[in-house]
Structures are given as structure tokens and as C-alpha cells.
Design brief:
Arc Repressor Mutant, subunit A; DNA-binding; 7% strand; ArsR-like_HTH; transcription regulation; three-stranded antiparallel β-sheet; 68% helix; mainly alpha; 2 domains; extended; HTH_MarR-typ
């Protein structure tokens, strides 16, 4: 199967980005191919299309399944498994954020909390713990925000995200307000 030029660019780009996102090139390429495919694909078709080994495809599909980013299906009379990416981009986004949190944020929170349970031995450790507490507060605040918006309908999430650009326009307003005043809520124009 030959790829159209746009699809090929997308697949190659996702492969390049894979390393930056914590997965290898092949995983990124396979996901991009499945994301753009109108029909579920079996491993042999993926291997042939991307020119990679069947074993590499199998390992990459397992990786994508561990991220909960694939849907697997079967067909009557066909022993092969077929794979597709979820159609809902918001579901994909939520899943990625959940998996990143489980793999990266939660272990960090555990380390920060356990570090703060230890008594500082000297002034340097006390200062370090103060900084760790600040980091912990920031991460916990971010996580609680995510928990609050996690189950919002996609339309509401879109509006919430668009609100960010509107807030930026307000903060850039060349009136009598300073950004710090708007953030604190000081609106006195006197």
C-alpha cells in the first residue's frame, strides 16, 4: 500500500515526534497511520505500508495498547487482529493525559510527598524542602484542575481552552490595568 504525500508527511512527522513524546519512531508512525486510516488495519498491512518488520509492528502495537490508544477488532473468517485509533480526538487527548499522569506525574508526587515526610537535617535541606513543597503545591493544583475538567463535555473543554486566548487579549489591554492587578482582582480605576 502506497501512502499519499500528505499522509506520508504526517506519518513521518509523528515518527520524528515519537522520541520527544517518550515513544520510539515506529510507535509514532504506526499510530499516525492508524489515526488517518479509514479502516482498521492488521499488522501485516501496517508492516508492508511502513516498510518495517512484522515483529517491530507487534511490539509497537503492544506499546500503543499499553497506552490505551488502540481499538482491536476481529473479522469473521479472518484470524488476524485489526487495529484502529479512536475516532474522538478528545478521547485520545484525555487518554494521553491520563497515561502521562499515571506514568510521570503520580510517581513524582509520591517522591515529593515522601521527601517532605522526612525531617530536614540542616538549613540546606530545610530550604530544599521549602522548594519541594512549592513544586508539590503546583503539581497538586494542576492535577486537581485536570480532575475538575476531565469529565466535561468536549464542547465545554473547547470553550474553556478558547477562553485562554480571550484572557490573554484582556491581559494585553493597554488600559489602566496592570496584569498583576487583573490577576489579583484589583479593578479600581481611580
Amino acid at each position: 500500500m502506497n501512502l499519499e504525500p500528505q499522509v506520508e508527511r504526517f506519518v513521518l512527522h509523528f515518527g520524528e515526534m515519537g522520541g520527544r513524546w517518550g515513544v520510539n519512531r515506529t510507535v509514532g508512525q504506526i499510530y499516525a497511520l492508524l489515526f488517518l486510516s479509514q479502516e482498521p488495519l492488521h499488522a501485516d498491512a501496517i508492516a508492508e505500508t511502513l516498510g518495517i518488520s512484522r515483529s517491530n509492528v507487534s511490539m509497537s502495537l503492544r506499546e500503543l495498547q499499553s497506552w490505551r490508544l488502540l481499538q482491536q477488532s476481529s473479522r469473521i473468517g479472518d484470524r488476524r487482529d485489526y487495529y484502529s485509533a479512536p475516532q474522538d480526538v478528545w478521547l485520545i487527548f484525555r487518554t494521553l493525559v491520563e497515561e502521562k499522569r499515571k506514568r510521570e506525574i503520580d510517581p513524582t508526587l509520591s517522591l515529593l510527598r515522601s521527601t517532605l515526610m522526612e525531617a530536614p537535617q540542616d538549613e540546606n535541606e530545610a530550604y530544599g524542602q521549602k522548594r519541594i513543597a512549592e513544586m508539590l503545591e503546583l503539581i497538586e493544583l494542576s492535577c486537581s484542575w485536570f480532575d475538575e475538567v476531565h469529565d466535561l463535555p468536549p464542547e465545554t473543554l473547547q470553550n474553556l481552552m478558547r477562553l485562554g486566548s480571550k484572557v490573554q487579549k484582556v491581559l494585553g489591554f493597554a488600559g489602566k490595568f496592570r496584569k498583576s492587578d487583573l490577576i489579583r482582582g484589583d479593578h479600581d480605576r481611580s
